[in-house]
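Name: ParB N-terminal domain-containing protein
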Amino acid sequence: MTKHQTIDATAGRFALNSLSLSPMNPRQHIPEDEVAELAESIRTAGLIQNMAGIEDGQGGVQIVAGGRRLRALQYLAQHYPESGAKNPDLTHPTVKIAPDQTTAQAWAVAENAARRNLHPADEIRAYGKMEQGGATPAVIARAFAVTEKHVYRRLALAGLPDAVIDALAANEISLSMAACFTISTDEARTLEVLDECRGRNLSDYQIKKALKPESIRDTDRRVIFVGLDAYKAEEGRISGDLFADETLLDDPDILDAVFTAKLDEAAQERTADGWKWAEATADPYIGYFQIEDAKMARLYREEGVLTPEQSERYDELAELSTRDATDEAADAELLELHGILEGTFTDEQKAHSGVIVYVDQRGELRTTEGLVRKEDKAAAIEAGLIQPSRHTTGDDAPKSPISAKLADDLVRVATGARQDAMLCDPELILSLLAYQMTGKMGYRRALGLREDEVPNFPTTEAEGYTLDKRLTTPADRPSDPFNSDLAKGFRAFRKRGHDHVMAELTRHLAALISVGDEKLGALVDKEAGTDIREVWTPTAANFFSRVGGPYLNALWFELLDLSEDHPTATSFAKLKKGEKADRLEKLFTDAETREAFSVTEAQAERIAKWLPEGMA
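Structure predicted for ParB N-terminal domain-containing protein:
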């Protein structure tokens, strides 16, 4: 053996042919394909981690830690001898030398037991370096035993400014937060937002909005209506969020222009159908109050009549439809018969009325038809399409001495007097609030408070998620919300006592809690002792089956402190995805499973507290 250069007392460079595998090395049997994959990685990115060994007393070194690396270097020397000429580290690698057998044995065991997946920041840099060296995503995926999709996502992060990767490496931001920065091409803005993120648990939405406050998601109703092609045809810019599988539109003015033009075109088509007028509105909904505010009357379709045979067929199809027993042809037939019943607008109706065209929240074109404008009402009355108002509207009609504005002021004064008086009876105020929140008033209100629903239940799988029944029991609403006797109901409600009133108030107010501010939310959680795992347990249905296999592998290794080559880890990795999801569920929910895998107290505590990224 020729010993080239001693780096220090315990390390030096050694010729590759002087190195051999020590019997102490735990990696005695490595599949050939794994050796080839690692060799490809080393050929592209270099030998990132040195080996360790002990001198054999005959001029050579036995490798106790780094058996896979040794085989990969030997593979390169045999199959790619030119790689050594380009990189001397491959022919004369640095080896750390153990001073004695005891130390060598400790190194062999310690490295094998302490192996972990690369930190995401190190992984990103390694992938990026390999790509710069000419490796394709497929080659990188084989070298690191991951999916190509995983590589593509890491490579997307490899293009981020170094400051973002450094912050990820220092755990100042999470991997999810780092991924958000891929949507930005403005480095100055990226660094500004990065400074705002350090050490803070900002949501993905907050970061993306800070990076691109004007961008619009492709799920916006306007985008769905016009389509991306029409937007791009006007040179609208598009950026993607690879990690959220969404497209962002960066030119809202162009989108609005394309949206308005297409909506106006749809309105013009309606005038060609015979309507007197048609106009477009950017509103996503046209309701009764908007029609009333515009002082328009409304015409309705003239209902059609089904023949006895059609009526019998309609009833038959309707009954089948309620049991989901119709095919596509039957559904089309039912729709056609329903259209006859629904009726049509006559040419005369169209000649006196018009249409408002709009796009709803789902991006679908909608119309509100048969609207008679104020200036067209007289002609519609003369044509017998609408009835004249029963209220006198002529100049000779007696006018009220109290104007509408004054009447409104008087109502406000009376309201103020009531509020002033009720200040002396806070119990009455709380009772009224509780009574309203129980739903017993229907759509009417005693206080200016709206009970907007705050979502607190998963949209798909609720398995493994249990809330207090007080939060999930619906309000007891009256069968006839408009004609119920509120005074009688309120008296009965109060008679049930103060405890009942406060219990109802508490449960309904709790269901309305929605704290958007991060600091306030943290304070509330601290005061209340919020613990997500008290109400939610990850299961195969609600979580594990909805993430990828590599994620499940990494989680299994992390929870049980396993190295990748540990028998428990390798056997898990070979399972099908569904089997992995079921096994992880049992690890979280089944005591016998934890006992079977010798889960320690520390591991059990980790499992009991574990939450996915972004949820903690």
